[in-house]
Amino acid sequence: MKxxxxxxxxxxxxxxxxxxxxxxxYDSKMVGFEMTRVRCDAVTVSHHHGDHDCMEAVxxxxxxxxxQISCAADDFAVESISTFHDDVKGAKRGSDLVFCFSxxxxxxxxxxxxxxxxxxxxDKIRGCxxxxxxxxxxxxxxxxxxxxxxxxxxxxxxxPMHYKxxxxxxxxxxxxxxxxLFDPDVVISxxxxxxxxxxxxxxxxxxxVLDRFVx
Length: 215
Hints:
It is built from four helices and 16 strands. The chain has 215 residues and is mainly beta. The chain has a single domain, classed as Ribonuclease Z/Hydroxyacylglutathione hydrolase-like (Metallo-beta-lactamase, Chain A). The strands form three sheets. An eight-stranded mixed β-sheet has the order 8-9-10-11-12-13-16-14, with helices on one face. A six-stranded mixed β-sheet has the order 7-5-3-2-1-15, with no helix packed on it.
């Protein structure tokens, strides 16, 4: 399968058969930069904030998955887990859906705007192949909170998302604050927008920083 970073918390997952899912498409005016519009078969929405649920940013007429669900179609299986956007059980920012994708023998987990640590969720996703994890703080877990998730889940690969870039209008931390918590030998800036996965690497966890896809 191919994992492509479209910026902010948005990824495109493309199976070997060509089935495509986009996660958390964003309003470009809200985030501060243009999201490249792509076609897909389905869109997952972790929560209904403008930087995560902008359907106008995708092409075609995809299915929208925005609730707790467990389903399978073609070569994808999708399960969502309900949790919170903050550390006070949703009182500040509401709920958040963690989406778990099974495709081509791999398990990919998108954490949405997770704002707290939840041991029950960590137990469910432990050992996943790829963890897509917010690290910027303010609206989500910060670097230390994200590291706690990595330590509990032990993914083979973690891809940081929802962090400050020079283009962002958001007041959040950059990715370096998160990557500095790891041994430099396991941090990889690939200099590309995509990661092609046949098999995930053995432990220890690799931290893979992707560029944003620009058409």
